[in-house]
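User: Before I run my own analysis I want an independent prediction to cross-check against. Here's the chain; please return only the structure tokens and, at the end, one sentence I can use as a sanity check.
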Amino acid sequence: MAGGSLGDVVLKVEPQALYDKSHEVGRSLEIMRQSFAEMEAAAQGSQSYWQGEAAQAHRAACQACQKEAEEIFRRIQEHVDELQEMAGVYEGAERAVEDLMETLPADVIV
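Assistant: Structure tokens:
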């Protein structure tokens, strides 16, 4: 029924496509988080060999990005969660329509 119509409602994307994209974005998000953590670790690790004003400014800039990056990661995760929720709603609606169709007498549908 996905990709088809449910009465006046037309699904333009199949629920499985929503699940697939949410998982794809979730994997990309995890890679971004890991990369950002590695960058932070490298910046902090530079304290042992890089000293001075430029070093402090660089580490401060990296640290300042942390809050913004966490906010971005949080918002992307919200989108992942919403895609999965939408897919679940679509699947539930499809099941409800299919169940309703099964309860109708065969001689009513022309």
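Sanity check: The mean pLDDT is 87.
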